């Protein structure tokens, strides 16, 4: 990853450019306030574990310092939020404020340590920067982890990974600048974080800034390319937010290409002055969905199948955790046959998302994501309900997850000329757990549920197990969707080819995380040098080949997404992980380390024939509330390349 900072610090360039905090501080701030610059960038640099463990904030500071700024461009920086800074000048025990301008980098203010995940901390910094370093055009850039609409950004490592939620961000900004829907006070707000290009973020900043630059997907740790985009601004300070936003996007993608992290990246530029029509279209879209569900709750399952097939971000699987963020445009497009208002959403997105870049495995991104309750977690939904844009989808998810609406929700549907809520059917209301499978004359197993499956299921796949009866063990090898589905009749056939994923010939657990017509994405849990990661693996249907995109550590309990996409390096010690339980007992499956081997230049992911032994397959049914039911098993005996399927 990014290591240019090492040479800079070893040569003493950064340290030599710093002034001590004291008398110089007054000179710096006083002079800056006297003359308004063309541009000021206020950089909220919350280092977090990204800095403590990898020095990535230091790396981006070093990138910035490669740029010689003109006299009319200032970068005001607040550092904090990390237990340790990987340089000799930033003090982790304080909040420090720096100015980088034509005179170099200087420390201009210090404050006692405080959580950078608190609105008051952000507001104090913004007020300081505005008062001392005003400009004709102002950008505010957040640097840290991100967690999407619910969890926000700026997770402070020193304070339990406390983060700024959208309402906290809005409170801080609106205490410093007067919001205006027609004359936004800021030129640009940017998130060099994961998952913050959402319709909810756009809504939060629509009366505060003209433009938003952010990523729908998780970002790799190389992040924005500061020397390139700040270099462009230094060369042309007359550019506006739209021009700068496009430069940031292009620079980011170029930086990802340099280090090989571009394949599933996204970054978009949104004109927030045009977000109003999108929010209106989004509300109409949600109201139509809610009406359809109130008339027939089977709509929840049909809409869920569209959401599952839509490009979504941050993982959204049991193995990786859930962000519950999905591309708004892709979901609208896939549901356009059910909801006529979907086209208005697509038109409005096309109008306000001015520019975007993305990798070959993020081709469906339309620039802004929205909330969808993939995991059916009511607590997570309640968090979204407090900060999310619009109203209709909040009632949609409330009805879906709880089967009821509060008084305000009932008033809302009354305005839609609806007066009752039919009972929601799901997997808890049918007896499909342990449903028997059949095997046809061709040795293909199938599950028959009937037409009711179309009204209840959000998706269906299978889990594969290795069975060792002699030692009373079962190993769960993962999940996939290699099936043929007849939704009209509710009959589902396995299309299993008796092969499974492997790394350098070592059978691997893999979990399907996204399926499309062009490619499937999988999460593969492993240990890399003893640390837990999920390999991001793709199967490309066009090339009929597998590839490893990198490794992430998933979503933690705070909702924070891992920003570091770690690429495998020669010499890494890789350990595959399966999940083990008793074959005859009722114990839960527990992680089990399988094979350990060393990564080489030729390490790859591929399919392999199942080794000789006994296996079982269970059909896995899921509804829109993330309830699961599991069929009875079909068993495979593999011996010398011959496979026999049996059901009991």
What does this structure look like?
This protein has 648 residues and is α+β, with helices and mostly antiparallel strands. The protein has three domains: 4-273, Rossmann fold (3-Layer(aba) Sandwich), CATH 3.40.50.11970; 277-352 and 368-427, no CATH class; 432-647, no CATH class. It contains 19 helices and 32 strands. Strands 17, 18, 23, 24, 25, 26, 27, 28, 30, 31 and 32 form an eleven-stranded antiparallel sheet that branches. A nine-stranded mixed sheet has the order 4-3-2-1-5-8-9-10-13, with helices on both faces. It has a four-stranded antiparallel sheet with strand order 15-16-20-19, with no helix packed on it. The relative contact order is 0.10.
What are its keywords?
648 residues, 9-stranded mixed β-sheet, 19 helices, Rossmann fold, disordered N terminus, alpha+beta, 11-stranded antiparallel β-sheet, 29% helix
Q: CATH class of the largest domain, please?
A: Alpha Beta
Query: Unreliable runs, pLDDT <50, ≥5 residues?
Result: 1-13, 17-28, 30-34
- Strand portion, in percent? 25-35%
| Tally of strands | 32
Class derived from helix and strand content: alpha+beta
Give a quick account of the main beta sheet: strands, pairing sense, barrel closure.
11 strands, antiparallel
Distance between the termini: 53 Å
Average pLDDT, rounded to a whole number, is: 92
How many domain units?
Answer: 3
At the fold tier of CATH, the topology name of the largest domain is Rossmann fold
CA-based shape: globular
Mind telling me the C-alpha Rg?
26 Å
Percent helix range? 25-40%
CATH architecture level-2 label of the largest domain: 3-Layer(aba) Sandwich
């Amino acid at each position: 990853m990014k290591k240019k900072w090492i040479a800079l610090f070893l040569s003493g360039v950064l340290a030599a450019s710093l002034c001590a905090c004291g008398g110089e501080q007054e000179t710096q701030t006083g002079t800056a306030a006297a003359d308004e610059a063309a541009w000021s960038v206020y950089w909220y640099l919350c280092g977090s574990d990204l800095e403590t463990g990898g020095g990535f904030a230091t790396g981006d500071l070093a990138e910035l310092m490669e740029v010689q700024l003109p006299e009319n461009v200032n970068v005001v920086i607040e550092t904090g939020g990390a237990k340790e800074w990987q340089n000799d000048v930033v003090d982790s025990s304080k909040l420090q404020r720096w100015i980088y301008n034509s005179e170099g980098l200087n420390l201009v203010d210090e404050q006692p340590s405080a959580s950078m995940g608190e609105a008051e901390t952000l507001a104090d910094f913004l007020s300081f920067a505005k008062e001392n370093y005003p400009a004709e055009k102002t950008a505010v850039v957040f640097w840290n982890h991100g967690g999407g609409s619910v969890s926000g950004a700026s997770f402070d490592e020193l304070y339990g990974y406390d983060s700024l939620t959208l309402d906290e961000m809005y409170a801080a900004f609106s205490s410093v600048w007067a919001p205006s829907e027609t004359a936004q006070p800021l030129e640009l707000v940017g998130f060099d974080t994961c998952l913050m290009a959402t319709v909810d973020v756009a809504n939060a900043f629509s009366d505060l800034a003209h433009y938003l630059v952010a990523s729908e997907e998780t970002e790799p740790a190389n992040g924005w390319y500061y020397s390139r985009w700040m270099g462009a601004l230094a060369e042309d300070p007359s550019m506006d937010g739209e021009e700068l936003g496009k430069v940031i996007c292009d620079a980011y993608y170029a930086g990802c290409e340099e280090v090989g992290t571009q394949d599933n990246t996204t970054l978009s530029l949104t004109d927030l002055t045009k977000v109003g029509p999108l929010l209106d279209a989004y509300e109409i879209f949600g109201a139509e969905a809610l009406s359809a569900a109130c008339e027939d709750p089977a709509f929840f399952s049909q809409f869920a199948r569209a959401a599952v097939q839509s490009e979504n971000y941050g993982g959204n699987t049991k193995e990786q955790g859930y962000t519950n963020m999905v591309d708004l445009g892709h979901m609208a497009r896939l549901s356009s046959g059910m909801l006529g208002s979907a086209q208005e959403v697509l038109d409005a997105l096309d109008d306000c998302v001015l520019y975007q870049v993305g990798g070959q495995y993020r081709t469906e991104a339309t620039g802004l994501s929205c909330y969808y309750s993939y995991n059916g977690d009511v607590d997570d939904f309640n968090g979204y309900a407090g900060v999310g844009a619009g109203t209709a989808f909040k009632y949609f998810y409330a009805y879906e997850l709880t089967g009821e609406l509060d008084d305000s929700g009932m008033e809302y549907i009354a305005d839609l000329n609806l007066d009752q809520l039919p009972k929601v059917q799901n997997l808890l209301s049918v007896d499909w757990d342990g449903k028997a499978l059949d095997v046809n004359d061709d040795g293909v197993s199938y599950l028959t549920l009937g037409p009711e499956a179309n009204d209840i299921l959000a998706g269906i796949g299978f889990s594969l197990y290795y069975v060792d009866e002699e030692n009373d063990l079962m190993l769960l090898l993962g999940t996939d969707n290699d099936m043929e589905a007849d939704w009209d009749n509710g009959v589902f056939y396995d299309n299993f080819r008796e092969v499974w994923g492997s790394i350098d010939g070592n059978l691997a657990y893999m979990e399907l995380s996204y399926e499309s017509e062009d490619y499937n994405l999988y999460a593969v849990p492993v240990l890399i040098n003893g640390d837990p990661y999920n390999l991001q693996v793709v199967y490309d249907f066009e090339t009929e080949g597998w590839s490893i995109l990198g490794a992430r550590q998933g979503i933690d309990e705070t909702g924070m997404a891992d920003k570091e996409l770690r690429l495998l390096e020669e010499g890494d010690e890789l350990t595959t992980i399966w999940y083990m339980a008793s074959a005859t007992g009722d114990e839960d499956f527990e992680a089990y380390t399988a094979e350990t081997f060393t990564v080489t230049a030729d390490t790859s992911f591929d399919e392999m024939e199942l080794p000789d032994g006994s296996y079982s397959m269970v059909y896995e049914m899921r509804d829109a509330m993330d309830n699961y039911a599991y069929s009875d098993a079909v068993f495979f005996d593999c011996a010398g390349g011959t496979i026999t399927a049996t059901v009991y």
